[in-house]
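Example record

One chain of 166 residues, shown exactly as stored in the release files.
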Amino acid sequence: MGQLELIVFDLDFTLWDCGGLWVDCTDFPFRKDSSGRIEDGSGRHLRLFEDVGDILDVVDHMDVPMALASRTEQPAWARTLLDLMGIRSRFAFEEIYPGSKVAHFQKLKIDSGVSFDNMLFFDDENRNIVEVGDLGVNSVLVPNGLNSGLFEKGVENARIRQRPFE
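Predicted structure tokens for this chain:
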């Protein structure tokens, strides 16, 4: 690995919590109240995990582009939520549609020009970690939402090229 050139995040149960559901299982439409709280049609709280804002700031300071890779059945809902949370513009690439994460990463490689071994990926599902790990992507399993400790260990692991990290 030459260097870390792209950091990719899954959405559900990695960057955000949709009241214990995947975004495509929530009740659309979403709304943001005057206090900034985001809810679905049933009043379920939709939020970023606590450390995510700080992690995105760190990546911005690292000057490494960020991407999203999500297999959601409701891409428009995911994009709406990203917009409501005010973070969508932080990602240089979006692969948000149903299907294998392998397809997402093949497209990311083409669009970004970054080789798989210079990518770092965070996801809550082991099957995705295994699939993209087989491509050579440095992958981190996120069992309970992304936090600063997992992020820092993932970056360090990618830099010394030990895969996979759990």
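Notes: Residues 6-16+48-160 form a domain with the Rossmann fold fold (CATH 3.40.50.1000).
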